[in-house]
Backbone:
């Protein structure tokens, strides 16, 4: 069986180092907001090229905290891609803002920057970009729009740790960026974790307080905050794994390149990239006609697949107020898309077998 993602094997590579660091935390007697957070935050900010990093409990919270820190709320509109994981949209509606959805480009799956300006109104406060499946969004036009209309750019970088847009990394492409360290992400913890990166010192400080009951000083609360902290143990694990992230991403790129060059089947549409460094291949998503039949075929040949995602946010039951909307490209992607195995621990043999099996599909 070729697993979609073998988390045990991924973490086994760093097991001794992770265990030693966890031991250190255990013996320190200090489990929240301590040295491990400081060290990881500093290393992760540097990695992204951002000035500040604030750890928090998960990726959804990272995005919720950014929107909350800006003070956006009822009546404010935030532009976001229609084609994304639901957490991007939940962060907006949790702050009582209105998501204004924009169609993606069919071949990169990312938000189509050409369609954004028509959606800007005098209520628009921010553009939330999602670097979906690991590919950085094309930023040029979005930067220009943000400047022209005085909007914040919020990045959802949960799937794209390490991806570049030209010479800058995600996490440093907008005003603030939310990361997830969910175990299956390119940089994954042994449980939940998240972080915000930004170059804005005031915003970083506010988010730090908001994530800790709205408090800078114990028992003095200046904001109505949340409890959303990154555990010391998770920070320690992430700090170990961060050192190997570029290596792991390089292996993902190798496999992706092999797929792009060698998958040849007229029933299948491959994803498009616009530069080698823009994509860190969190998932390798292809489009295929008669997806269920294709999925069954791969199952029968011992290849695990996952669908990212079967239902777009605007068609989810929790968003009844959006259900009437129609986003044809988004819906087409959700109907046709399927993700095939890719991970830093896949072997050459496995990668070749995936291609062979896919090319024989009729
Ligand atoms: C995983 C993910 C999130 C949420 O991260 P959690 O840590 O699971 O809360 C947000 N946005 C996108 C695009 C994601 O893939």
Residues:
């Amino acid at each position: 069986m070729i697993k979609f993602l073998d988390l045990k094997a991924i973490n086994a590579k760093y097991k001794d180092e992770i265990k030693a660091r966890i031991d250190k935390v255990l013996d320190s007697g200090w489990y929240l907001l301590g040295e491990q957070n400081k060290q990881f935050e500093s290393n992760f900010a540097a990695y992204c090229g951002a000035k500040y990093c604030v750890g928090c409990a998960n990726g959804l919270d990272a995005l919720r905290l950014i929107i909350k820190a800006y003070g956006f709320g009822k009546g404010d509109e935030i532009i976001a891609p229609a084609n994304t994981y639901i957490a991007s949209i939940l962060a907006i509606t949790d702050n009582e803002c209105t998501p204004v959805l924009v169609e993606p480009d069919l071949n990169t799956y990312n938000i189509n920057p050409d369609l954004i300006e028509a959606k800007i109104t005098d209520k628009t406060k921010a553009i939330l970009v999602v670097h979906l499946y690991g590919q950085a969004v094309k930023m040029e036009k979005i930067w220009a729009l943000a400047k022209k209309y005085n909007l914040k750019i919020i990045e959802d970088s949960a799937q794209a740790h390490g991806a570049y847009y030209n010479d800058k990394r995600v996490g440093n492409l907008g005003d603030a960026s939310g990361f997830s360290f969910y175990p299956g992400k390119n940089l994954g913890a042994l449980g939940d974790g998240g972080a915000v990166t930004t170059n804005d010192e005031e915003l970083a400080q506010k988010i730090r307080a908001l994530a800790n009951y709205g408090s800078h000083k114990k028992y003095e609360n200046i904001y109505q905050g949340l409890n959303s902290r990154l555990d010391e143990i998770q920070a320690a694990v992430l700090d170990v794994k961060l050192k190997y992230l570029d290596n792991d991403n390089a292996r993902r790129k190798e496999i992706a390149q092999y797929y792009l060059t060698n998958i040849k089947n007229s029933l299948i549409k491959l994803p498009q990239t616009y530069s080698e460094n823009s994509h860190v291949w969190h998932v390798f998503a292809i489009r295929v006609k008669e997806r269920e039949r294709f999925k069954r075929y791969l199952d029968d040949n011992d290849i695990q697949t996952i669908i990212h995602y079967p239902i777009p946010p605007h068609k989810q039951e929790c968003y009844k107020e959006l259900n009437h909307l129609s986003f044809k490209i988004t819906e087409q992607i959700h109907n046709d898309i399927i993700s095939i195995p890719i991970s830093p621990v896949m072997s050459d043999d496995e990668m070749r077998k995936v291609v062979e099996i896919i090319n024989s599909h009729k």
About this structure: The first helix runs from residue 7 to 12. The chain has two domains: 7-102+110-239, 245-360. The first strand starts at residue 52 and ends at 56. DSSP finds twelve helices and 14 strands in the chain.
